[in-house]
Amino acid sequence: MSRKLLTGNGAAAWGARLAGIDYIPAFPITPQTEIIETLEHWIGGGQIPARLVTLESEHSMITAAGAAAATGVRVFSATSSQGLLYGMEMLYAVAGWRAPFVLVNVSRGLSAPITLEPDHNDVLAARDSGFLQLHCATCQEVLDSVLIAYRLGEDLRVRLPVIVNQDGFYLSFTREPVEIPDQQAIEAFLPPYDPENMQFRASAPVSQAVAVLGGGPYSYFRYETHLASLQALAVYDEVASEFEKASGRANPAIECYRTDDAEYLFVMMGAFATKARQAVNQLREAGWRIGLVRPRLFRPFPEEKLRRALAGKKGVIVIDQNISFGRGGVLHTELASAILGKSEKPPLLVSFIGGLGGRDISAEEFYEMARVTKEAVVDGKAPEPRLLYTETELREVRKLQGIACVERQALENEL
Amino acid sequence: MTETAFKHMRDLPSTHLLGTGTPACAGCGGLQAIHQIYDVLGKNTVFVNAAGCMTLLSVYPFTPFRGSWLYTAMASAPAGAQGIRDALDILIEQKRIDKNEDLQVVVLTGDGSAYGMGLSATSSAMERKLDFIYLCYDNEGYGNTGQQYSDATPHAAKTSTSTGPGGYPGFKKDLFSIWAAHKPAYVATVIGAESLDLARKIQKARDIEGPCMIISLSPCPTGWDFDPSLTAKVGKLAVRTGIWPLKEYENGNITHTRKPAKRLPVEAYLNLQGRFKHLFEPKRDEKMLADIQTQVDAYWAKVAS
Amino acid sequence: MYRIRFHGRGGQGMKTASRLLGAAFFLEGFAVQDAPRYGAERRGAPIFAYVRAGKSPIFERGIILHPDLVIVADDSLVPVPAAGVMAGLTDRTVLLISTTETADEWRRRLHIHSAILTLPAPREVEDRLELRYVGAECAGAAACLTGHISKKKLERAILGELEGKPQKIIHRNIEMASEGYDRMADHKGLVQEGTLPSAKAYTPPAWIEMPFEAARISSPTIHAGLTSIKVRTGLWRTMRPVIDHRHCRKCWWVCSSSCPDGAISVNEEGAPGIDYDHCKGCLTCVSVCPSHAIKAIPEHQAAAAEEES
Predict the structure, then answer these.
(1) Which residues, in sequence order, are CB contacts of C2 under 8 Å at separation 6+?
(2) Local structure of C287: helix, strand or coil
(3) Are A39 and A102 members of one domain?
(4) Tell me, what's the ipTM?
(5) Quick check: is B279 in a domain?
(6) C225:B67 CB<8 A
(7) If you measure CA to CA, which chain A residue comes closest to C40?
(8) What is the pLDDT confidence band of residue C11, given thresholds at 50, 70 and 90?
(9) Is C235 helix (H, G, I), strand (E, B) or coil?
(10) B112–chain C Cβ distance below 8 A for any pair
(11) pTM for the complete prediction?
């Protein structure tokens, strides 16, 4: 074991390296490119025996990844944002092939307008694809999650591809101390890839991913994919527990921080959740009984665990770093459906949208969200969802609009 | 380069490898070519299919292949071929599987994918020198959805999206030249109605390493509107009128494998097909017929010079 | 509500037939649904189409499980399970077949309690795919059997549906529809509207908990080659190519390579043979045979001759 300063991208590459990957179909996109460059340098330098091929698009990249996994080699790939969406047709397809591999997505806000910094609309667009999803909050977790993802996706009860998500810039380009496990320890944890009867060989003709006609067989294949994803709930716990034995690090499906005696909870995913963790500490010093719940596993959705974590709480502050236009936060919707009709005395859920396109969330905003939620609990009624956005920010936009010659009259009316 | 195993028609395979019972239309010119091609390639192949008529060759639980098959998507079959080729190479290199387990990777697409949506994936696979065979069955339109025009539709043809008096205003894209410009290992045009020429070329494609690109003009009774018994006749006329030149590209040179000594007038080919009926009825469209003839003549004049 | 199913082959105009009947019902003030059943429909392959018609709005959708009237444009499809002609027939279903046989003969063959009526199929037409107006005839017969559609509205429905087609074709359709209508004059109103499933007493669906099955089993993968031969595409055939071995010159490479489906094999003596289980009847072999040793004969005649021998 060694300890190094690594970016999230570096940690992702190390995860792939330790997993003993055979094949990397690639396509560059900011802020992911460093991952494939790092792997290529190791290949070029003869440090790992893998093969990397740059395709002409993410659509082709994911096709090649699925096809290689379906032939029987261990595959790694990485993308981000527009790239993930460009490959979207194939995300659904290769999951339906039941071809397991690991795809690191470096979250970045979606076009339009095109931007660079992160939010989670890209990865959430793949929510229903059949890919399992692990969401990371630290660079260490990125490395750990890649290794866990291989065990999880390749488990014969599951056999599905996995997305490991990290936030662009906040993790991808940020160095943190990361423990790199020894190769031997990982070899014991992650056996060689064996997808049983999924392969292309001269001696065993197969037709994979064939068409079906009619809703009967179609429903069967699709629902089996759902059942396999649900199997991953229990398999994740097994795998995470073995990983903890091998590495000493726990990566539970949901992280519960200071939740036991809490009356209030923050719920959020991704790198910004560490900010919520700090806010929990500060609020506790100010007398709050508050904690943080962070789903690391988002698909399958650890519904039962979340329900237990939320049970008996007064108020839950759900912070979505995404927005479903015309509806609101995706995590809020999912949590609401998880507790509706299934919890006695469900807590009040209060929805906040923040961090779109990498917009910062300040400590004070966490404190204020807690205060608003406490007030809502007293009133017994959740307020309308709030976008975390200040007067100063709107003023800044007004300046930009002035330069962009946006119609003056309209601007004045708005102000 | 091995010599051709197909000197005479009687050298053609007398047993057929592709299974019957497929949902292809009766008289399908694409299937006519594919079953002949399969006989030459053999069962140690994996077909990587893009969305098109032939997607339905394998409908669960039925497949006509003795070997393997993977359905990908309309745009990315060559990338699927890349993944399989690379994975097999890795497995063989690392001695994780025996060399005997190797497969020839064959992309199978229609013209909709080959000439349009899949062209960038194809171009890129050639640039990467992927060792594969690419087989396009070209029925000059989006056949599986009811024959809308594609980039492969010939000038003046009526399709379900070019129903006006002049038919399709565009011209068939010269995919052979686009492919040849990439300098792949091999490019050839074939047609199911010329079995011997087809078998020789597929044998070459099988034996040459690198990207081997094949376009098979595929007379389509359903989309071109002719009686299914005429598939072979329409195919032969496509060659004899000079509309479908049989040729190959190898080592930078283009060779015509059939030079019709006396080309038949194009209308011999056109007037068998409902999609060109408006050129003959109710009144002959002399100008359009002359235009089409002139283009074909110009092509062959260039070949001669 | 009436539930009516048309069965025929791709190319016999079943979609048009269903639309003619649907339009005629519509003109008579009925609420209507008409739809072809889409799949991998191919020329000669069995296809079907539906019409629903009722006096109040129709909320039922999709396939018709228990039809009130089944119309078969091609009698060779009746005994073919894959064509689904007999699916869901009840004692009150009326079965109308375009056929060269008599209704009595069909009663003898089918052993069902449904009423069976026939329309005479022309014996002189060899290839049944050339019966271009059989759909109109069937639609006309169906219109009469419901008892709610006048000939005038039927004619208007045809004019509306075929607008833009050549006059000759429209006229022929009207003639044939009218002929079909008249042939059913003795049975006008024979078909009765079906009822809706009762919510008071019904057989509950046998739902199951879908068992989880590992991807080894539950991925959409076929773990063998050549399974397509289980599909009998020979059913699509309306004309049968027959090799006259006295004239065959054994240049098998011509017919056998040309057959799109690879349905012509060659024996040890070099004589070609046709696999009738799978030959789709495109007749490419007939047109390419240099010695004209392959002839096409009507499938219904060939099948009848086979049955006799």
Answers:
(1) C25, C51, C52, C53, C54, C68, C69, C146, C191, C193, C194
(2) helix
(3) yes
(4) 0.96
(5) yes
(6) yes
(7) A213
(8) confident
(9) helix
(10) no
(11) 0.95
